[in-house]
Amino acid sequence: MSVATSAVLTAAPVNLNHPGHYVHWGAIQISVANLVVIALMVVIFVLALLLPFPGSRHHS
Q1: Comparing C-alpha atoms, which of 41, 40, 22 is closest to residue 32?
Q2: Integer angstrom CA distances of residue 29 from 24, 36, 40
Q3: Global pTM exceeds 0.70
Q4: 10 Å Cβ neighbour count for 23?
């Protein structure tokens, strides 16, 4: 496999050669990529609170 072919196969799935997209809320400005990461972290945190801990079930 040539170097050019391996570079194409390992390239980012998203074109990163353009300015980022931003969300504005008054004085707050955040990139969409960071907003997605924060939302995923909040979802994982909520799931960790709601899902039962493995092995915590008592068998009667």
Answers
A1: 22
A2: 5, 14, 19
A3: no
A4: 11
